[in-house]
TrEMBL record:
InterPro entries according to UniProt: Epimerase_deHydtase, NAD(P)-bd_dom_sf
Residue ranges of domain NAD-dependent epimerase/dehydratase in the record: 5-274
Gene3D superfamilies given in the database record: NAD(P)-binding Rossmann-like Domain (3.40.50.720), UDP-galactose 4-epimerase, domain 1 (3.90.25.10)
Organism: Neolewinella xylanilytica
Protein name: Nucleoside-diphosphate-sugar epimerase
Domain of life from the UniProt record: Bacteria
Coiled-coil intervals: none
Entry-linked PANTHER family: DTDP-D-GLUCOSE 4,6-DEHYDRATASE-RELATED
Protein family (similarity comment): Belongs to the NAD(P)-dependent epimerase/dehydratase family.
Amino acid sequence: MHFHLVSGGCGFVGRNMVKRLYQTTQDKIIFVDNLSVGTHPSTWLDTEVVRKDGDLEVFGPDERLLFLHQDFRKFLRDIIDDENYIRKTYAPDFERFSDVFHFAAIVGGRSTIEGDPMKVALDLSIDAEFFYWITRHKPDRTLYPSSSAAYPIDLQTEGDAIALAESDINFKKMGEPDMTYGWSKLTGEFLAKTAAEHYHLSVTCIRPFSGYGEDQDLTYPIPAIANRIANREDPVEVWGTGKQGRDFVHIDDVLDCIFWAMDRVTDGSAINIGRGELLSFIDIIKTMCAIEGYDPEIEQLLDKPVGVFSRYSNMDKVHEMGWRAKISVREGMRRVLEAQKGKV
Ligand SMILES: NC(=O)c1ccc[n+]([C@@H]2O[C@H](COP(=O)([O-])OP(=O)(O)OC[C@H]3O[C@@H](n4cnc5c(N)ncnc54)[C@H](O)[C@@H]3O)[C@@H](O)[C@H]2O)c1
């Protein structure tokens, strides 16, 4: 019996990962979340809680899903202080973690990234304690999600935007990343490389571009736009001019790429996860409206934060290595629209 760990396991990426691990393995999954943003597993797991003990809730008839409602840093400190802590407190059959997926972070979309940068900077503390712990515990494999926000912002302006390639981040010649969010991700990547090189651990970094999915919350643009269109709003609001562009990639593709990458990239270096396609928010609105068959006016909200003008990936390296996103933008938008219509 293997044990896997998912931090931030009730957030958007984390809960999709927990469900995927539960469906595709027979292993036990410990997932930790303080529910500052994440939603309680009873709202998104198909299986029931079978046992509760303090801050532990065990789900599923086979008791393979162990949810801990607590700050991930507290969990790390407990298991660093006492290497038998998990066995004594939560799971008598626990020995060590096989795969570790670290999704606990303060993200919060554009309004938090620009509106409360020092709150986002707390990610530095979560990541530092996380990387210290893996060098003690030595899990078989570690996944660290960096972000496209780590790329230099001067490569993402209206005049100078390029498809961002992995080599555009160079620790010997640094550019300025996107606010404290991008800075914490750069630091995380540096720690990941150090963990791999200095402590001989298998660490994989990913730089997802704009991940989206049916169960993402409405602080993110794709579900927010889908919600407006599912409600047949006219005009449909867009933040900024709507001409700013991103590289949208469906969460199922992100998870597929993570598992593919963990078998191949083990030295702490990072790969892009995107479609390599730049779409503006107006393109997204038009795609969804075409699916729905209506043609509303678009109203620009020029006082809203919009971030860089253009952020999209150069996927050449990953394509050459053999992975490619499968879910088209139209299919992904259709799925999100259907989910939002279910809520209307
Ligand atoms: N979603 C994307 O497209 C995307 C793109 C690039 C990078 N990432 C990275 O992937 C990771 C997960 O992103 P997400 O979209 O799922 O974000 P999210 O906000 O939905 O999930 C983060 C989770 O961490 C939890 N959390 C925060 N601080 C915690 C703490 N101290 N202890 C325990 N839990 C804590 C929150 O409650 C939340 O459930 C983040 O590191 C993010 O930077 C995501």
